[in-house]
Amino acid sequence: MSMARMTEKNDASTISEETVVAKVAQLMEIVDQIKKYGVLARNLKTFTLIVVSSIITCILVNNLIFYLNLLSGFDGVQQFFLTFPLVLIPAAGVVVGILFVKKKIAAVKTGEWKDELSRGFPSALKLLSEMDWDETFDVVSSGRHGYIMYGLVKGAAYGFISFFILGFLLNLITYIVLHRLGALGYASFHLSLLTTFLYLRMDLSKRVAEMREIDRLYWELQKFSHDLRNAEF
């Protein structure tokens, strides 16, 4: 009985070199992904500033147009359709913000470990020994927050834009059918809230699932690193 237990313990503590290399490759892929989330977290304020500034600019320009009576020579229908292009301002803000974030993420250096890991088991051990788990955990935590907040800000901006677009379409339909504007009341507001809610629900569910998977793999690989110190080859 004791011999069986000893054999089982030896089998559990024995890890093949191929397993180590494969696990380290998986770990480094996760670290690369975490780096991208870290960049996202660090640039979240800039992204939010770009989006919010574009929305505020849209509102200010719209108010300024009516304050200066620049469209006083047009009737209500014409004024509505002439001011609709202002929605391009927040739309441009969202596009610029997303491109800014993507550019920052694209600048992250990833995969630099592949050449070293291609040398096999000794390089895998070297990469694993150089891993700072505490620092990686901090990056995971901040990256999780930034990744989810990025989705929230982007969703809110989409909601603002959809409000104008839906309002334009609904007013266009009522004008063609009933020859007047505003017949559908707050329909565009309610529809934009609904579309924003559905988008955020889908987008945030995906983001939370991704972060949970990364958390799971992170702790699994940290345990693997601990077991590796007691393993035999």
Description:
- With 233 residues, this protein is mainly α.
- It has one domain (17-229).
- 82% of the residues lie in helices and 0% in strands.
- It contains nine helices and no strands.
- It has helices at 2-13, 17-42, 44-67, 76-83, 88-106, 114-117, 121-129, 133-178, 187-229.
- It is elongated, with a radius of gyration of 27 Å.
- The protein starts with a helix and ends with a helix.
- The model is unreliable at 1-13 (pLDDT under 50).
Question: Any chance you could write out the topology, listing elements then pairs?
Answer:
Elements: H1 2-13, H2 17-42, H3 44-67, H4 76-83, H5 88-106, H6 114-117, H7 121-129, H8 133-178, H9 187-229
Helix pairs in contact: 2-5, 2-7, 2-8, 2-9, 3-5, 3-8, 8-9
Calculate Rg over CA atoms.
27 Å
Q: Would you report the number of β strands? A: 0
Structural class: mainly alpha
> Total domains, how many?
1
Overall geometry? elongated
Specify the number of helices: 9
Estimate what percentage of residues fall within beta strands: under 5%
Mean pLDDT: 81
Oligomeric nature of the chains:
single chain
Low-confidence region ranges: 1-13
Through-space gap between termini: 25 Å
The H/E string reads HHHHHHHHH
Largest sheet: none
What percentage of residues falls in helices of 4 or more residues? over 70%
